[in-house]
Amino acid sequence: MSNQAIGVLVMSYGTPESMDGIEEYYTHIRRGNAPTPELLAELSGRYEAVVGGVFPLRENTNRQVAGLQAELDRMHPGRYVCYQGLKHARPYIEDGVAGMAEDGIRRAIGIVLAPHYSTMSVGSYVKRAKERADELGIEMTFVESYHLHPKLIEALVDRVKAALEPFNADEPVKVLFSAHSLPVKIREMNDPYEQQLMETSAAVAEGAGVKDWQFTWQSAGRTREPWLGPDILETLKEVSSEGYKQVLAAPVGFVSDHLEVLYDLDIEAQAAARSMDMKLARIQMLNTDPLYMATLADSVLARDAWNS
To answer: Residues within the annotated binding site?
Structure first.
């Protein structure tokens, strides 16, 4: 490989490769503290409910990395080489950086499969990647967010419009945009995460012609500190009390099918909606949508041009 090639470290949260890897994965998330048997059984049960033991979830990320590579090759053949780095599963972020060094990469760009920046999410990926890159003599810069990229907004608008079509046009539909909750303390840090999510939601709502929408949170961690809310389960109760019978979930903070979507929304929130006699539908996730692949590629190219 030419050492003139630019490495692209594609980072994401990570998911186990199989049911057998859940304990190791959960232990890493808990900073080396193994989960109690009860917690492990609960998490394993969630995965079992979603994948039935087959486990296709990891393939989503693999396909996204391959899709970005293909798009970069189409635009600039041979200039960029993608590597994968996961926060809580192998290959870890540090493994991806080490792979670049082994291949002779001297310059690299990092990008996270998450459009919105927070010091507690994207910022933590960047910190780990930069520390390892500095150790290995790789000059590395990062795409921190792309939450208003026109192609990202277009892809989300398309999904909202498509998901609204099957609803009864004679009844109002409440659109609930959502993202992964974070601890409330990010507000004291002037963290941009919440504001960026509101900007994405407003842009998508405007593009899709949606007037009746609100933002809610989901998938909060189980720690003693308070997390951003209300949670979507609480919001569904509120929406039901207002008389709504039709709700569309638009989890714009997520870019692929994984546990927070397939379980927290498709199973848990769906059951809550049924108990209140509400119809709940969800937009399709971005996964390897060409517009999302183009968003990632454009963002990498823009960062590369800025560095040049």
So the answer is: 13, 30, 46-47, 125, 180, 260
Site of tokens 């949170």: 217
Give Cβ neighbours of residue 216 (< 8 Å, ≥ 6 apart): 176, 177, 178, 230, 231, 232, 234, 235
Q: Which residues are annotated as a binding site for Fe-coproporphyrin III?
A: 13, 30, 46-47, 125
CB neighbours of residue 308 within 10 Å: 5
pLDDT tens digits, one per residue of 208-232: 999 999 999 999 998 899 999 999 9
Average pLDDT over residues 141-146: 98
| Binding residue positions for Fe(2+) | 180, 260
State the Cα–Cα distance between residues 254 and 285, nearest whole angstrom.
Answer: 8
In order of their start, the domains of the chain are: 6-145+288-307 (3.40.50.1400), 150-282 (3.40.50.1400)
pLDDT (tens digit per residue) in 70-84:
999 999 999 999 999
Q: Are 186 and 221 in contact (CB under 8 A)?
A: no
User: Does this model's pTM top 0.85?
Assistant: yes
CA distance 22 to 220: 19
